[in-house]
Amino acid sequence: MGFEYDSDTLHEECGVFGVYNHPDAAALTALGLHALQHRGQEAAGIVTSDGELFYAHKGIGLVGATFSDPDVINNLKGNLAIGHNRYATTGGGMLRNVQPFYADMAFGGFTLAHNGNLTNAHTLRKNLVKRGSIFQSTGDTEVIVHLVSMSDKETIADKLTDAVREIKGGYALLASAKGQLIGVRDAYGIRPLILGKLNDSYILASESCALDIIGATFIRDLEAGEMVIINEEGVTSHFPFKRRQRRSCIFEYIYFARPDSFMDGQSVYDTRKNIGIELARESAVDGADLVVPVPDSGVPSAIGYAQESGIPFELGIIRNHYIGRTFIEPGDSVRHLGVKLKHNANRRYLEGKSVVLVDDSIVRGTTSRKIVEMVREAGAREVHMRISSPPTSHSCFYGIDTPDSKELLAHTKSVEEICEFIKADSLAYISLDGLYRAAGETARNSDAPQYCDACFTGEYPVELTDHDNKMTGTTVSDLRERQSSK
Ligand code: SF4
Q1: How far is it, in rounded angstroms, from Cα 31 to Cα 283?
Q2: Does pTM top 0.90 for this prediction?
Q3: More exposed terminus of the chain, fewer Cβ within 10 Å: N or C?
Q4: Binding site membership of 400 for ligand 1 (Cβ less than 6 Å)
Q5: Cα 239 to ligand 1 centre (Å)
């Protein structure tokens, strides 16, 4: 598995989608997951319920491949469904970790799908195992299932409330039991979750683009720390935690979310364009001839930069969209040829030009270095890199797969040193305040930041219990399975 740039990007976490009260719940869920494919490409699963029985289908790979057989969808009976796209942030990629999870409990069947990451999962798991719990999977999500099963409360909502009061982290949960669909957004609203409607049916999803694909109407984002319960009585809202100001993940706007989505009332596309505008104001390049995005995520910011600076925009780099995760890595015999699997320079537009390259982030820096080199080889006279995020200097513990902080170039190097490493003529990142302005604020409120920006600032809104207890590594069996699943 893997190709030349894959290890040097941040990875989306997961996507969730649920339907209440629709005769084609499974088919709608497959479509919703397809719209959320960018949030996880390793595996997909759907569990449906007809009020009595539950039906499940899961597979490794893309949604289209897992749910292409009409019989698979037809066998997923019932008008209630929850689905999940997986990118393995914890627990490896094997089939037993593919969600949604199902468990038979004293009150009946229970299913759960989870986007995000728990920061105290190892600690909770250790305690649960001591108390006799037997885990079937290696990820963090199953901890929640066990906590629900151990709650002595009467209703499913109260049981889930007991469970979410134990867990910490950034997460969006979908659960179904007793003919109800339940959604929970973590106490700070770090991970996104929205509510929509399709005639008499309700939808819960990670992003609004998943409503568009099935013609559903957006109702609202769940609030930070909100639990919604959808049943015959309609939608009721509960708040299991002390109310806090929302601090949603600002990186969703920079890179993770689809640009046609709206999150917490804001267009992702507009925010990305605004970032480009702010970047052009903060870090102009005198005498530049062209603004070129690193596709695809750099495109809206490059458009904003070009509009604000008046410098022409061109697609000076073309991306190959047909590289899947299964593409074979070039062997040693062809590697020396400099195989360009993902990006190629559009030489005719670059020759002799001073180019402003716009990209979303620099992780380890190896990708940026290759791209700068490629643009130079195509004849560019100067290459000025502009980055639509502040320097990524800290790991994410809330569901985004980032390397350890030590491996992040910006953790130890200054902007000048990074510029030297990637061999650009100049390098500038958007400032933190510039990013906040692009995201609709006048500036970052340092006393009460309006977003999670921990990967730029190291200020984590939720305690890192496992990390602080040095329990961040996966278990030995995890690692073994992760190896064999590759
Ligand atoms: Fe998003 Fe960064 Fe916060 Fe992770 S640490 S949730 S990537 S802003």
Answers
A1: 41
A2: yes
A3: C
A4: yes
A5: 23
CA 174 to chain centre: 16
Chain position carrying tokens 């006799």: 132
List strands edge to edge, sheet with 108-118: 101-105, 108-118, 169-177, 180-185, 227-231, 234-238
Residues 42-77 have pLDDT tens digits of 899 999 999 889 999 999 999 999 999 999 999 999
Measure 439 CA to ligand 1 centroid, in angstroms. Answer: 15
Task: Copy the structure tokens of residue 444.
Answer: 């970052």
Amino acid at 140: D
Maximum Cα interatomic distance, the chain, rounded to a whole number of Å: 72
Side chain identity, residue 86? R
What is the token pair recorded at 264? 């917490």
Per the CB < 8 A criterion, the answer to whether 392 and 362 are in contact is: yes
Cross-strand bridge partners of residue 229:
182, 236
Ligand 1 pocket, mutate which of 9, 118, 401, 455 (most atoms under 8 A from CB):
455
- Strand ranges in 336-389 using DSSP code E only, listed in sequence order: 343-345, 354-359, 382-387
pLDDT 10s digits, 303-359: 999 999 999 999 999 998 876 544 444 555 554 455 567 889 999 999 999 999 999
Using alpha carbons, list the distances in angstroms from residue 452 to 47, 245, 448: 32, 11, 10
Q: Categorize the per-residue pLDDT at 90 as very low, low, confident or very high, splitting at 50, 70 and 90.
A: low
The model's pLDDT over 101-129, given as tens digits with 9 standing for 90+, comes to 999 999 999 999 999 999 999 999 999 99
Annotated catalytic residues are 14
Using a 6 Å cutoff on CB, does residue 363 contact ligand 1? no
In the chain, what percentage of residues exceed pLDDT 70?
Answer: 90
Distance of CA 172 from the midpoint of ligand 1 (Å): 14
Of 255, 395, 398, 432, the residue with max ligand 1 atoms within 8 A of its CB, to mutate for a pocket test, comes to 398
Q: 149 C-alpha vs ligand 1 centroid, how far in Å?
A: 30
DSSP structural state of residue 401: B
